[in-house]
Structures are given as structure tokens and as C-alpha cells.
Amino acid sequence: EPRSPWCCLAWTLVIGTMNSLVFLLNLLLMFVIFTIVLLPTIVVVYFGFQCHSQVLHSSARYCKSVLDDNSSSALIILGFVIMSPLLVVAMATYCSLARRLQLLVCFQPYSLALYKGGRWCRRGEGAPCCARGCQTQLKAWV
């Protein structure tokens, strides 16, 4: 049965807030994973650009004694070369973790705000954010 207009508006705000929080959680998880996996690339490219004479030309001791322009260029190239495989590793890690935690199942449709009696979970095992006690139906073809 349809909800009243004020109840529909309240449920829309609740569902919108919940979906926004789940989105921010996914974004935070992705940021943390990509930062950890791409840290070697970030460090190598940073030191390459910092010590190159035509970019930043730092006066740090290691730039003067260890890294010249050729080695700084090599660090920059190495950083960009190892970035591609590390991006693949980071995305695979995020996808497997999101699938294991079932984070994408937590997004709720706005049809729950329009009609009474909607359930907060979907078919299957359910996710940690879904309400327990939802009756899931077994499929004959599983």
C-alpha cells in the first residue's frame, strides 16, 4: 500500500542517507586500498620529481650525493611503468573485498520509500547491513 506524502519524504531521506553512507564507505575503502597498493609508485615518482634539476631541484643531501638528473629521470619512468600493474592489483583487491563484505548489496532502492511492506534485504545470504529476519525464498534452479 502506498505511504502518505510525509512518510514517503521521511523514508526517502532515510534511504538517501543510508545510500550516501554506504557510498562514502565504499569510497573510503577504495581510497585506503589504492593508497596502500600504489605507495611504492607514489614514493618513487615523488623522489624522481623532487631531485630532478628541471622540476623541483631539492637541496636535500640525498639529491646532491645519490640522485642526479639521469637517475631522477629513471625513477620517474620506473614509477609510471609500475603504476599500471599496481592499479590492476588495487582494483582487484577492492573488488574482492567489496564482494566478500557484500558492500554493494547495501544500496537500497527508493521504491522502499513509496510502498509499505518492503523488505530491507534482497535474495541470497544478505549483507551485514541488511535486517536479519528477512525471509529469503529458495530458487528451484540453484
UniProtKB/TrEMBL annotation:
Claim: Plastid is one of the keywords in the record: no
GO annotations of cellular component type: plasma membrane
**So where does this one cross the membrane?**
21-49, 74-94
User: What are the subcellular locations of this protein?
Assistant: Membrane
Q: Which UniProt keywords apply?
A: Membrane, Transmembrane, Transmembrane helix
Among InterPro entries, the record links this protein to:
TMEM88
Q: Which GO terms describe its molecular function?
A: PDZ domain binding
Q: Does the keyword Transmembrane helix apply?
A: yes
Highest taxon above the source species: Eukaryota
Kindly give the membrane topology term recorded for this protein: Multi-pass membrane protein
Q: Which family does it belong to?
A: Belongs to the TMEM88 family.
Q: Which PANTHER family match?
A: TRANSMEMBRANE PROTEIN 88-RELATED (PTHR28628), TRANSMEMBRANE PROTEIN 88B (PTHR28628:SF4)
Q: What is this protein called?
A: TMM88 protein
Q: What is the source species?
A: Polioptila caerulea (Blue-grey gnatcatcher)
